[in-house]
């Protein structure tokens, strides 16, 4: 006596619904992966392109109504922009804030900036630099 096979004859009934679903999932996964790769590339490109300005506070000197900040800025030639500086009092309250604007062809700017304050400042902090 022989046993009957439970397998369907190959090619007779087409692909199973599981195979079609697997194929659709693979296509959807490939499309989503490509979109994610494009998105990451876009943000990486703009992060690198926009990062043309770097700056640091070298030293500062505080008095009762002003803080003199020695600021050094490195930038690409021809880039114009601004850096925002602030000073805080001993109790962490902000006593002064100002933007330092720059431009021109120099790639390095070394300047002492005077920041007017409403009380004696104990810090000089560079909040960030941005291109115009």
Concise summary:
This protein has one helix at residues 17-50, and strands spanning 53-62, 66-75, 81-88, 94-102, 108-116, 125-131. It has 132 residues and is an alpha+beta fold.
Q: What is the fold's blueprint, element by element?
A:
Layout: H1 17-50, E1 53-62, E2 66-75, E3 81-88, E4 94-102, E5 108-116, E6 125-131
Antiparallel strand pairs: 1-2, 2-5, 3-4, 3-6
Keywords: Membrane, Transmembrane, Transmembrane helix
Transmembrane segments: 25-45
Protein name: DUF4307 domain-containing protein
Largest sheet: number of strands, sense, barrel closure:
3 strands, antiparallel
Specify the helix fraction band. Answer: 25-40%
Tally of extended strands? 6
Terminal-residue CA separation:
88 Å
Q: Indicate the radius of gyration in whole angstroms.
A: 31 Å
Instruction: Give the number of domains.
Output: 2
């Amino acid at each position: 006596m022989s046993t009957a096979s439970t397998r369907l004859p190959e090619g007779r009934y087409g692909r199973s619904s599981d195979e079609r679903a697997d194929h659709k999932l693979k296509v959807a996964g490939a499309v989503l992966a490509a979109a994610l790769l494009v998105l990451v590339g876009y943000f990486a490109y703009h992060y690198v392109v926009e990062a043309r300005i770097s700056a640091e506070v070298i030293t500062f000197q505080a008095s009762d109504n002003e803080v003199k900040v020695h600021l050094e800025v490195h930038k690409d030639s021809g880039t114009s922009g601004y850096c925002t500086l602030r000073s805080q009092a001993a109790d962490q309250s902000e006593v002064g804030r100002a933007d330092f604007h720059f431009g021109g062809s120099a790639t390095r700017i070394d300047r002492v900036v005077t920041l007017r304050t409403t009380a004696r400042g104990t810090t000089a902090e560079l909040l960030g630099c941005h291109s115009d």
